[in-house]
Design goal:
Layout (H helix, E strand, L loop, with lengths): L33 E6 L4 E4 L1 H5 L7 H5 L6 E9 L2 E9 L3
Antiparallel strand pairs: 1-2, 1-3, 3-4
Amino acid sequence: MYIDYVRVYQKGVGVIEKPANINSLTVTNPVNARCIVYGLNGKIIGDYTHLVKGMKKGEDLNKVLSDKISKGIYLVKLYDNGNIKCSKFIATAK
């Protein structure tokens, strides 16, 4: 027997109308947290630590960033309470 190729299907996969941010970044310790935003090429777009300092514990960083960054896809790195959290961020506001 010879197998030429295999085709695999996945039931229930559709198109997302409006892309959402994959991971929410909740802040646990805003006083000591840092936030750096990178472009997909790895270059730093900006340091948004000043926005994190004004946040409340448990608040989602993606919601705060959405009004501050131009349209595009970014990588957000949050240094918070000794942990480093990364997330893909899709800005659609500006």
